[in-house]
Amino acid sequence: MSTDDAGSSIDVDRRMARTTAIGLGVWLTLTFAAVLLLLLFGGTLASVFV
Predict the structure, then answer these.
(1) What sign results for the dihedral spanned by CA atoms 12, 14, 15, 21?
(2) DSSP per residue, 12-24
(3) Residue 5: what pLDDT?
(4) Where do the domains of the chain lie?
């Protein structure tokens, strides 16, 4: 394994870590938004379906 391969491998790992972090951030944002909407409008939504 040459040093170029090691550098390339680290770049790939960093790119994968960044992509994973962004995905987790988006997932958490959507989850918190859904919880907030349910807390704010849960009663109204429940009355529509009951």
Answers:
(1) positive
(2) HHHHHHHHHHHHH
(3) 67
(4) 1-50
Please give the structure tokens belonging to residue 37: 């909407």
Q: Is the pTM of this model over 0.70?
A: no
3-state class percentages of the chain: helix first, strand second, coil last, to nearest 5:
95, 0, 5
Instruction: Take residue 14 and report the two structure tokens written for it.
Output: 């960093």
Q: Residue 15, CB half-sphere, CA atoms under 13 Å: how many?
A: 6
Q: What is the pLDDT of residues 3-39, one digit of tens each?
A: 566 678 899 999 999 999 999 999 999 999 999 999 9
CA 8/CA 43 separation, integer angstroms = 53
Residue tagged 């409008």 (tokens): 41
